[in-house]
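Protein data:
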Amino acid sequence: MTDRKITYGILPLYKTFIMQTRINNNIIVLLNEYLDDLVKNKQRKSHAHTLVGQIRQREESQQLLMDHNHSDCMIFKNICLTVSFEYMKKFHEMSFRQQVEERVPQIDDMWSVHSFEGDYNTIHTHGCNTLMGLSMVAWTKVPKQISDLPAQGSLKNASGANDGFLGFVVGDGDVHDAERLKFSGYTPVKPEVGVMYVFPSWVQHVVWPFFGDGERRSIATNVNMFPFSHLSPEDQARYTEHKKQFGQGAWGK
């Protein structure tokens, strides 16, 4: 009798992946306390001159440079560095590629975006000081009209199903992609308080406007992934000692 068993392998064709993690509510409270103080601080520094976000509809609409070494931000900073290690490790597992040299994450910059009705962010990418760079966004406040939307709603009948959403763009996208067994090049995600997305800095993304009362408050972070050999001798020694004590977890400036 003929053996009718079929064997097969799969070669994935997607370009990248987005990692999702959740931030403890106690950390969100700390971050909001820090940001509440920052928006009142007359010495605050706008980060808008380096960004393409059209955050301008109200006087409170602003994009502010954060001090990631502030005591209220340190736990969050360490989370950003830790998930950078995890993302890099998962990428090498999924791509079947060996890591040529150990990479060490360091925060490039961190800023808050205080968006109100009509504010939006045009399609863009982020910049880092290393070719391998990671970016992340987390929300600390989300208006009810966004929270009440379904995570995957139909856009027909002018539903507003993506109002206030973040959208990742890695290729063309079409509403019929799923029926064609095609991974879409456009992925919208609903903002949620305490949720953070991690992605390579080259990934294009867009933030759609929302309408009505409330503030959509987010924190964006860029992380440089320095080859170990590019660190100063002092940082190499400091990082090696950190790894002996704590393993390959949060570390960086």
Q: What stands out?
A: The chain is about 20% helix and 25% strand. Residues 22-148+192-203+211-246 form a domain with the Jelly Rolls fold (CATH 2.60.120). Residues 153 and 161 are 5 Å apart (CA to CA). The mean pLDDT is 90.
